[in-house]
């Protein structure tokens, strides 16, 4: 069986004062582990990484995402499941190591709206989020360095990759600092053997390393090759454990959705103004 990597948040992580001096956010059901055996990322490693907080019935839902263009964030379908498409109270924290923003060059944006793929299924598709204001023009770095390159012209079988995310570490303590880890992209044949009909190599990939993997709390986060070439979005893991060697974590392939992502951004321009 598979387990979706979703985390709800309320009352505990303090949102930056630039957003709301009275907003407090805490993990309602904290992730068991986020990046297993990861190490802290350094400032500037992943300026395009984003943490997302969506208003929900009991507080806020936490997910990861990536800035793919000046006003657009890519994340996973299950991160917005059950939320209204115009979710203006959601927050996007960009270019920060902290789960709720802060630090030199960090930015906060409101969520203007989102669009899920038309063949939406909770565990296996992408969502494009439109921010209330552009991002790239306000950060002192080039677009090439900031926005994650979306490219997947091969299966990337057996290639080294990097995963990133927030949450608990392998020690069991909660980390509010972005974590990173090296993994290997498995061949599709291995993923299919492990997951059976649950896995589709044309739209999914699987990746891990010995005792290293993504886990609960990493929903919507990326897997990169060559620094900032994003080839997948975190999808699901085995309910027997995130580092289960017999069922390694699965990601949705970016290559299967490149056309849709481009068309979605073109047909959903950002608002003229926002907070």
Structure description:
It comes from Daphnia pulex (Water flea). InterPro entries: Peptidase_S1, Peptidase_S1_PA, Peptidase_S1_PA_chymotrypsin, Peptidase_S1A, Trypsin_dom, TRYPSIN_HIS, TRYPSIN_SER. Strand 6 and strand 7 form a beta hairpin. The chain has three helices and 19 strands. The protein folds into two domains: 141 residues, Beta Barrel (Thrombin, subunit H), CATH 2.40.10.10; 107 residues, Trypsin-like serine proteases (Thrombin, subunit H), CATH 2.40.10. The chain has 275 residues and is mainly beta. A six-stranded antiparallel β-barrel has the order 13-14-15-19-18-17.
What layout of secondary structure does this protein have?
Elements: E1 2-4, E2 7-14, E3 24-27, E4 35-36, E5 39-40, E6 49-56, E7 59-69, E8 72-76, E9 91-94, E10 107-116, E11 126-131, H1 143-146, E12 149-150, E13 160-168, E14 174-185, H2 188-195, E15 204-208, E16 213-214, E17 222-225, E18 229-238, E19 250-253, H3 258-267
Parallel strand pairs: 12-18
Antiparallel strand pairs: 1-18, 2-3, 2-7, 4-16, 5-14, 6-7, 6-9, 7-8, 8-11, 9-10, 10-11, 13-14, 13-17, 14-15, 15-19, 17-18, 18-19
Family: Belongs to the peptidase S1 family.
GO molecular function: serine-type endopeptidase activity
InterPro entries: Peptidase_S1, Peptidase_S1_PA, Peptidase_S1_PA_chymotrypsin, Peptidase_S1A, Trypsin_dom, TRYPSIN_HIS, TRYPSIN_SER
């Amino acid at each position: 069986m598979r387990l979706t990597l979703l985390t709800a948040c309320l009352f505990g992580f303090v949102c930056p004062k630039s957003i709301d001096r009275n907003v407090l956010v805490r993990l309602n059901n904290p992730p068991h582990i986020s990046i297993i055996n990861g190490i802290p990322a350094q400032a500037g490693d992943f300026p395009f990484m984003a943490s997302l907080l969506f208003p929900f019935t009991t507080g806020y839902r936490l997910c990861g995402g990536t800035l793919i263009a000046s006003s657009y964030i890519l994340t996973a379908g299950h991160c917005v499941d059950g939320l209204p498409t115009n979710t203006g109270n959601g927050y996007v924290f960009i270019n920060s190591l902290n789960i709720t923003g802060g630090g030199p060059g960090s930015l906060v944006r409101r969520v203007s709206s989102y669009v899920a793929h038309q063949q939406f299924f909770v565990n296996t598709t992408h969502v494009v989020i439109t921010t209330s204001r552009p991002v790239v023009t306000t950060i002192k770095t080039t677009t090439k360095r900031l926005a994650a390159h979306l490219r997947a012209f091969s299966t990337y079988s057996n290639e080294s990759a990097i995963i990133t995310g927030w949450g608990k570490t392998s020690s069991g303590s909660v980390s509010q600092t972005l974590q990173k880890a090296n993994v290997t992209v498995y061949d599709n044949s291995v993923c299919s053997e492990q997951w059976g009909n649950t896995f589709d190599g044309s739209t999914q990939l699987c990746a891990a390393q010995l005792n290293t993997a993504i886990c609960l709390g990493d929903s919507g986060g990326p897997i990169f090759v060559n620094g900032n070439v994003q080839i997948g979005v975190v999808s699901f893991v085995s309910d027997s454990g995130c580092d289960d060697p017999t069922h390694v974590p699965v990601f949705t392939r970016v290559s299967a959705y490149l056309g849709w992502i481009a068309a979605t951004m073109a047909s959903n321009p950002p608002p003229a103004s926002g907070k």
